[in-house]
């Protein structure tokens, strides 16, 4: 505050000075000073609120970056955005440093995949803050992912033929478990895409898929087992008082079967047939393996599953190794 009978008010330091009209030492001066100080603090608080993590998340979810994400990716991101909002919502994002990102990852180190996702989503958020002009750098850039402990690494294997046979023997075509099983195995698609399939996606003797993760559009011919399961459930749906547009519907037939509900049902089924070692995603692995074992080449497997060449090679590596080893041993015996 400047000197004289009519000093200037300046707060915080570096802001534009405001001349106080009342003379110093008067009641009016004190009232005017108190009002100016209150308004300045309120203004600072409003500006600061914009730069909080909650403010950044809100801005990001209104951006084209967010709108360009698939529904599935948005759901995955939301879990991490909720974490950042809950833990650091009121913090000024301009004060975030690399160490804060690492600390958040360390706090979730028992769940390595989530911990790495915390960093990856933070990197996206701070990239958005740079676009907004709120920061000049990205504190999450260059932070290394945590490595999964060897003891916890899941060496996913395809469902073996005997377990597929056991599942089919226990669950009739009319059950939701069997329909989900045949959709995953027969189409070779991810469970997230399978749960979103609608009756209108069936075109003749094939089913149309648009993969959430990749955006690929596929028209996949039905296998005989999948065809039988679909015929059974189309009849059930037609006879129901409440008909669902979704192939896999919830118990009330008011919407799609939830991921949690479907996963739990399949887990119970896996336990019932002694297949806990093989999860539902392993059915996609099994689909690629079955195709390879009947002589399909990589482009053919890619056409059914929508996998990249790299993933096809990865998923069929075990079967390929055994095929090559068998040929080698036959040559050896000659």
From TrEMBL:
Coiled-coil residue spans: none
Alphabetically ordered keywords of this record: DNA integration, DNA recombination, DNA-binding
GO MF annotation: an example: DNA binding
Biological processes annotated in GO: DNA integration; DNA recombination
Keyword DNA-binding: yes
Pfam families, per the entry: Phage_integrase
Tyr recombinase domain sequence ranges: 149-329
InterPro entries, per database record: DNA_brk_join_enz, Integrase-like_cat_sf, Integrase_catalytic, Integrase_recombinase_N, Phage_Integrase
Keyword Transmembrane belongs to the record: no
Protein origin, superkingdom: Bacteria
Family the UniProt entry places it in: Belongs to the 'phage' integrase family.
Protein name: Integrase
